[in-house]
């Protein structure tokens, strides 16, 4: 690990001012991602600014939004009564992430800033990876790409985004509030997360001198009937192969509206808006749902080893919608 | 850097490299080797300690981030020479073989019980899933946590 200096930020403006004036500076809060990046040499900042004790840990339902401070810990958000009652998919996505110890440390802002778990990116020996070393190539494109993306990838990068809670946040149209030297901006998650295109080393549109200060989730009635389904290779403490945040609203005995976002299939949480529209007026039963959601996968682009994720994701969407609608 | 840590009710002053994880500071600087360094990547749970009453991984945080925090390690949970009930339950139920993961398991279990997450076997397995045991003493670990929670 390269040497760095350490200081605690006094306030957001001070932290942002350091980022603006010192290109070698980096923020640290929970540390559960950054400490690994430092150990692996993925990043090597000369100056760490600890923002972990700034007063940005609110979790409050107010003015039609759930306001989540950037420094609220994952465990605090998942345990919050309003989150559990009004946004069950957010609570479930958080509780199925990481381990209890990591959830006590990791912050919500830091969770959104996670980098991919692609094995080539995380490799201890240097392998071609355009995220690690821009221009070095993508070893996963023709390599072991079982966990790679179905949607939104480019020949420069086929990695998926690992966050669970971002998938639930995407289903609920959450926005990210960020502060830079010239003030605050508000970004939807599709504006916050970039597709890899030709520059996969940049996952987000966050400028180098900006920091996330909060996440606002509109408190829509549909969120109350929501679930998060995570499919993984062991039953706990593992990243998703495929995950689904689903929410439903009934119109009589049929679906009136639905929300679907997928994890583990794209470089960012992947909303299935077309499928949501097709579900209006559909009965909450497996065959009818399957027929309505199938076309959403027509533009999936599988690689050599991950085509199984198309059928897996379709079945997961059906099951998540049934769960959200209260079918056991 | 100058750093003061509060560990098991005792104040420790030291000069420390900012790169030292809390786990390394406990073991290498303070001789508190009960906390184990397993994977050093936040994957195994062997380094679990409590900070301000919450279970965390000491390998995934820098020591300098914890000036002012109350830290509890495995050395700090027995009282007046009497084992903590979770320690006693691990012995009673043979909740280990090689013992390397045990202090992390016990620190995690103490928190798991106080959080209210040790209500039945399935819940214990889920809420203890951040602590890996390569000897696979899991059945006895769950039995020990279940017994200590009663």
Q: Can I get a quick summary?
A:
The complex is a heterodimer of chains A (about 325) and B (about 150). By secondary structure, chain A is α+β, with helices and mostly antiparallel strands.
Write the CATH fold name of the domain at 225-324 in chain A. Enolase-like, domain 1
Say which CATH homologous superfamily of the domain at 225-324 in chain A is assigned: CO dehydrogenase flavoprotein, C-terminal domain
Tell me the number of helical segments of chain B per DSSP (H or I, 4 or more residues long): 5
Q: How do the strands of the widest beta sheet of chain A line up side by side?
A: 4-5-8-6-7
CATH architecture of the domain at 225-324 in chain A: 2-Layer Sandwich
Describe what this molecule looks like in 3D.
By secondary structure, chain A is an alpha+beta fold. Chain A has twelve helices and twelve strands. Chain A has helices at 12-21, 34-40, 74-79, 81-86, 88-95, 100-105, 108-112, 165-171, 189-192, 273-278, 286-293, 308-324; strands at 5-8, 25-28, 47-50, 59-62, 65-69, 175-180, 183-188, 211-218, 226-231, 242-251, 254-263, 270-271. In chain A, strand 4 and strand 5 form a beta hairpin. Chain A is globular. The model of chain A has no long low-confidence stretch (mean pLDDT 97). Chain B is α+β, with helices and mostly antiparallel strands and 150 residues long. Chain B has two domains: 2-75, Ubiquitin-like (UB roll), CATH 3.10.20; 85-149, [2Fe-2S]-binding domain (DNA polymerase, domain 1). Chain B has a five-stranded mixed β-sheet, covered by helices on one side. In chain B, a hairpin with a 2-residue loop joins strand 1 and strand 2. In chain B, helix 2 (85-92) packs across helix 5 and helix 3 packs parallel to helix 5 (138-149). The A-B interface holds A 1, 3-6, 28, 31-32, 35-36, 38-39, 48, 50, 52, 75, 98-102, 104-105, 236-237 and B 1, 17-19, 21, 40-42, 45, 48, 54-57, 59-62, 64-65, 108, 111-112, 115, 117, 125-127, 129-131.
